[in-house]
Amino acid sequence: MDLNRIKLNTEQLPVDIFSTVAQEAAEYIQTNGSEINRSSQLRKFYDELAMWHDKVFQAADRAGEYQKAAPFIQMLKAKAAYAKGRRHVDDKFIDIFNRIIGEINSADSLKNAKLFFEAVLGFRKANEKPGEAK
After folding, report:
1. Could you tell me if 25 and 6 are in contact, meaning their C-beta atoms sit under 8 angstroms apart?
2. What is the reported pTM?
3. CA 107 – CA 63 distance, rounded (Å)
4. Based on the structure, what is the number of domains in the chain?
5. Is residue 20 assigned to a domain?
6. What is the pLDDT along the chain (134 residues), one digit of tens a residue?
7. Interatomic CA distance for residues 67 and 61, integer angstroms
8. N or C: which end of the chain has fewer CB within 10 A?
9. What is the CA angle 35-20-128, rounded to 5?
10. What is the DSSP letter of 19?
């Protein structure tokens, strides 16, 4: 997967960012029955990213709230590294997730990151084999 295709902090998003690029990312992190990169584990990262998104977008001053939240959003990389150390996620997930978080530099790019990660998880779920979801 060419991680450079994940561009979330631009005014003009790539047309296929939430479709083809998200699907490629989902296929990249698919493990087919492994205990690593389980849906439940990936969902925890999505839920926390969504929580920061909601906190920023519920504020009257989105830019100011984003500036307060930015260090904690970037800390998600450390949380992903910890999950990797515990063998809950693999290097491929770390590659994708760190690229997503690294692309966040404003409230708008936070929104794009949330939507992209949501699309990735949707495609990943669609590709799961029966009995794989946990």
Report:
1. yes
2. 0.92
3. 6
4. 1
5. no
6. 999 999 998 888 999 999 999 999 999 999 876 789 998 999 999 999 999 999 999 999 999 999 999 999 999 999 999 999 999 999 999 999 999 999 999 999 999 999 999 999 999 999 877 665 55
7. 10
8. C
9. 25
10. I
